[in-house]
Write a structure and sequence with these properties.
Layout (H helix, E strand, L loop, with lengths): L12 E2 L2 E2 H20 L9 H8 L3 H7 L3 H26 L4 H18 L1 H8 L7 H22 L13 H21 L6 H18 L4
Antiparallel strand pairs: 1-2
Helix pairs in contact: 1-2, 1-3, 1-4, 1-6, 4-5, 4-7, 5-6, 5-9, 6-8, 7-8, 8-9
Length: 216
Amino acid sequence: MKNIRESAADGRVYRGESAAQRREERFERLLDAALEIIGTEGFKAATVRAVCGRAELTQRYYYESFENAEDMFIALYERELQRLAAAITAAVESAPKDPPSFARAAVGSVFRHLREHPQAARTLFLEVYGISPAVDATYRGGSQRMIDLVVGYARPLVEPERLNGLDFDLQGSALVGAVIFVAMNWILSDFAKPEQVIVENLMVMARSLLDGLGRA
């Protein structure tokens, strides 16, 4: 993927902005346009012409930032995953430092973010499948980062002697996997069930996990 954040060679300033700043702004405009299209019509609708038209930029600026549509999708996926991770981080850092409160904050933040950002939800959980091996690898890496994020916050809350021989990473992976699968079906249903119903049902699994770890 092209790194549009690299400094421009000439460093010239135009209307108070450097060339690098203008490239960054165009990059974000293109991603915003891609998000609108992919999040409503699907990846196949996000052609170069469609994205540039929505962003009100010429195709030369598209290829300034991306090699192709796959490259564009990876950039968009990474940006939206970072935003989701930021929402989870903010929620868990402000929650009480006990396992049940942590679990509720983490799970609740995911579904709140998806409901508030439905285009990002579709991009992250539906459109990511079947595009290319490179996108598949990006998805697997992103999923692992989400697992690492949750497990990293949760690990200090569980005393090692209370694990009862269980694999904490595997338990965390199972919970994150459940959240991903439920999120996919929730998005496919057009968010039919109330957010709180989703969270409360997943908390049953979270509490069962805590029971197994000796921290009910």
